[in-house]
Amino acid sequence: MKAKIFSGLTLLALLTLTLSGAVTAQGSSPAIVAKGEGLPPFATHEGALPQMTDAQRLHVSLVGQIGGFIRCVAVQGDYAYVGIGTRLVILNISDPAHPTLTGQTAVLPDFVEGVAVAGNYAYISDWNAGLRIIDVSLPGTPIETGFHDTPGKARDIAVAGNYAYIADNLAGLRIIDVSLPSAPTEAGFYDTVGNALGVAVAGNYAYVADHSAGLRIIDVSVPGAPAEVGFVDGIGYADEVAVSGNYAYVAIGLGSSLKIVDVSLPSNPVEVGYYDTPGTYAGSVAVVGNYAYVAASDAGLVIVDVSVPSSPVGAGSYVTPSYAVGVAVAGNYAYVADSQSGLRIIDVSIPSTPAETGFYAKVSQSYGVSVVGNYAYVADYVGGLRIIDVSVPSAPVEVGWQDTPGTAFGVTVAGNYAYVADAGGGLRIINVSVPDAPTEIGFYDTPGIAYSVAVAGSYAYIADDTGGLQIIDVSVPSAPTEVSSFNTHGSAFGMTLAGNYAYAAANDAGLVIVDVSDPGTPVEAGFYVTPGHAAGVAVGGNYAYVANFFGLCIIDVSLPSNPVEVGYYDIPGIYAGSVAVAGNYAYVTDVDWGLRIIDVSVPDAPVEAGFYDTAGHTYGVAVVGSHAYVADGDDGLVILAFTPFTVHLPLVLGNR
Fold it and tell me: How is residue 241 annotated by DSSP?
């Protein structure tokens, strides 16, 4: 599946997508933008929502969430503890061929970057939210019992005795006393030279993968006064470290290699061997016996024979579907955190011929969403189409999945069919009459990159990047055919329909209005060059609402031949990529700043009515009633509730 990841796009070419309807307002918008400094399902029960500050939300509350990137994994006994998006998910792996969901935490404040399990507790490095301690004595009902917010960004964690050791990025190594799990306290810290990204503990020493500063060895025999005793720099960008016997095994991220360091004398560590791993990035390493297991991004799992540390040799490899970013090994199995493709369980009993035994994968990187009835249909980038039962919004459940050959950016549903804008895979038509068994029945390979799709009657209208507007006859879903196309002058990213007109968000060409009353001969009706790059569009009444990179542009289209801007709202971020309209409100996705809700009841004076800063990258949105369904990139699908602020004036009774 890795070959279908569309990597050659510029940032602008990754903008997109909106679809709005009469009953529901929907939209979607792909982009690859790093949120913060990090790497690149489930029910939220009432009373267990993450605490949000006033700066993170206004008149909007979290209802439910499902899925996200998998970043880390730890194994203890019959269970794998997996960081998926903003939750810790516990899987029963007693049958490696069929891992099953046992339990999951409520939504945590930030992404689960690292996990270590000791006894009845799982210890989580939760990026901006520091250390979270989860009671897993009952795997079906894990409960957060304590937390400690570190000053940096908690990237990795190790636990030994009564202490948790956190690689806290720019804040170095933090040592937390967890002897009382409900009240963890910092015992000491050591500010490393570089960025602390990985940590392992053996005996009296903590070994820190300190990115550009290499491997740092810290004496933690006195937790309140840790001191560096040795280091090895110049080995590359150290991202992770594992220690076995007298050797530290360092995963070198950029440069993709495994460095082996003799640490028998901690004050004088010496590099003794290295192995250049395939792939673009070596992000994690585990060592068992004579083998090192490296999560090597697009090269998957790489197994290295380290029986002779000075001469490591490749033993075997297994290319996973996505990007391998984390690994744990127990018995004959390696458990690989494969970012967008879930947990992959690899039989490594014969290191030279590793083979996948089982996997657990759900919605991972959502870019677009459409909601019809009790189901949300999610364009899941490399994960194809995911179908989520949202009949209980607080407890969304994935019920169906259909892979696509490209990268799914946009989706709309009409009748029994889901129409997926699949980038290089063109238009994919999927029968969803049985939600738990979707089946692709037809496709059309568009000339450009299919970013967004709208459907009316027998026709699908596709925003096809440099291919402009593509109009496809889908009256026979198994045999779609092109009817016509229209040059939108700019790259077509977003598309919606209203009456006889197609409205295209066409990048630097702005809003382009096309008369499609005769689909076979589309004609330009009018255009408006927006002040930024038009990425998404929705239409309500006489107005078109354009997500315009830096804000929301409101355009009067009552006269399509002469569209006029009447209002504008600046968003706090730099990328408004998608918009949906419902009632008096426009819902704008602001990639790094979450969902912004704009009151457009007075089009020439729009004002913000609410917002919610999600954990992921907010790409697409669909609105049904009071719920907004947000395609939140690496945090999967997020369901929010908007409660407009109302002013209640006192009743004043006058004298009669």
Answer: E
Tally of residues, the chain: 656
Measured between alpha carbons, how far is 194 from 169 in angstroms, rounded to an integer? Answer: 8
Q: Is residue 84 part of a domain?
A: yes
Side-chain-side CA neighbours of 531 within 13 Å: the count stands at 14
- The residue behind tokens 């903590």 is 206
Q: In this structure, what is the dihedral angle of CA atoms 609, 615, 621, 625, given to the nearest 10 degrees? A: -60
**DSSP H or E segment with residue 508:** none
pLDDT at 55 over 70: no
435 with 545, same domain? yes
Q: What is the CATH number of the domain that holds 545?
A: 2.130.10.10
Rounded distance, CA 217 to CA 77, Å?
Answer: 30
Mean of pLDDT values over 501-509: 98
Q: Tell me the mean pLDDT in the region 474-494.
A: 98
CB 362 within 8 A of CB 380: no
Confidence of residue 251 (pLDDT cuts 50, 70, 90): very high
Whole-model pTM: value is 0.90
Is 194 domain-assigned?
A: yes
The average pLDDT across 581-596 equals 96
Could you tell me which residues come within 8 angstroms of residue 601 by beta carbon, excluding any fewer than 6 positions away? 584
Range of the domain at 301: 69-117+190-223+230-360
Q: DSSP letters along 327-366, please?
A: EEEETTEEEEE-BTT-EEEEE-SSTTS-EEEEEE----SB
Tens-digit pLDDT profile for residues 313-353: 999 999 999 999 999 999 999 999 999 999 999 999 999 99
- Which residue, chain included where needed, has tokens 């790059």? 533
Report the percent of the chain where pLDDT is more than 70: 90
The stretches of 417-480 forming alpha helices (DSSP H) are none
Classify residue 419: in a domain, yes or no.
yes
Write the pLDDT tens digit of every residue in 115-138.
999 999 999 999 999 999 999 999
Domain assignment of residue 508, yes or no: yes
Q: Give yes or no: residues 322 and 439 share one domain.
A: no
Query: Are 329 and 275 contained in the same domain?
Result: yes
User: Domain check: are 420 and 496 in the same one?
Assistant: yes
Phi, psi of 12, deg, nearest 5:
-65, -35
Residue where a domain terminates, one of 360, 388, 403: 360
Count structural domains, the chain: 2
